[in-house]
Write a structure and sequence with these properties.
single chain; alpha+beta; Alpha-D-Glucose-1,6-Bisphosphate, Chain A, domain 4; 11-stranded mixed sheet; two-stranded antiparallel ribbon; about 25% helix; cell projection; STARD10_START
């Protein structure tokens, strides 16, 4: 069975992005909403797990096509993503899927994180979809100085609402690993999400001018023939499960930070 997403996976991702059942609002202002999926219950007890979070932003000054390019353009990301440590594409798996690496800076004293993900995308007349999930790649095992995090499912649904406006939805369920308490992770994601979305929106506003000066015709995510990454057999990858990675104990560090905050 192929690891590559098929039509049903794209349909399921779209459904989750647009669904209103079972989501509770945590933030709603200035055209931005942050929603968290209600936890499933197990014999009356809520199952502690990492929240699935969804951010929906109404954008009135950037086209859906531009926002889609911003998410894909790795060169441009280096100019606007303040959290990025390192990011690169490893190989392509098909005309609309690749595998890549991303690492990011976490607030001190928590260790920095990284992920290896399979990303796939789809463009239709009335929407753009990109999503990823964590995979195991033999040449990119967990590194000593970073904690390997897990993207269970992370992605974007972008729908045009006019020639220069769109609805931009970000959906993510990710486990940062380490033994950070789940409530810390969930609280942090609700606070950080609006900040990240604002950052992405600003990146969209500035992209056309930047792209004009930086290989304007080069968009391999739209034109697969431009893609010069080596081909890789998707069969060499497997889905990275959270429970197969070791937990780095950082709870004492979080406690120390909490104490400083409250003093």
């Amino acid at each position: 069975m192929s690891i590559l997403p098929d039509e049903a996976d794209f349909a399921d991702f779209r459904k989750q992005c647009l669904s209103t059942d079972n989501w509770s609002s945590k933030y709603d202002k200035n055209g931005m909403q942050v929603l968290v999926e209600a936890s499933p219950t197990n014999k009356g007890n809520p199952v502690p797990k990492v929240h699935k979070i969804k951010c929906k932003m109404t954008i009135n000054d950037v086209s859906a096509a531009t926002m889609y390019d911003v998410i894909h353009d790795g060169q441009y990301r280096k100019t606007w993503d303040p959290a990025m440590l390192d990011s690169f594409d490893i190989a392509r798996l098909s005309a609309n899927a690749d595998v890549g690496y991303y690492s990011w800076i976490c607030p001190q004293p928590i260790k920095n994180r990284d992920v290896v993900t399979l990303r796939s995308w789809q463009v239709t007349e009335d929407e753009y979809i990109i999503f990823n999930f964590s995979v195991k790649h033999l040449k990119y095992p967990p590194r000593k100085n970073l904690v390997r995090a897990i993207s269970i499912l992370t992605g974007y649904l972008i729908k045009p609402t006019g020639p220069n406006s769109c609805t931009f939805i970000y959906l993510s369920q990710a486990d940062p690993k380490g033994s950070l308490p789940k409530w810390v992770v969930n609280q942090a994601s609700q606070v950080l999400a609006p900040r990240v979305m604002k950052c992405v929106h600003q990146a969209g506003q500035m992209y056309p001018e930047w792209k004009q000066k930086n290989s304007p015709d080069q968009k391999p995510w739209l034109y697969p023939e431009q893609n010069i990454l080596p081909m890789m057999d998707p069969g060499e990858l497997s889905i990275q499960r959270a429970d197969s990675l070791e937990n780095m104990d950082e709870s004492s560090k979080v406690a120390a930070v909490d104490n400083q905050d409250s003093s």
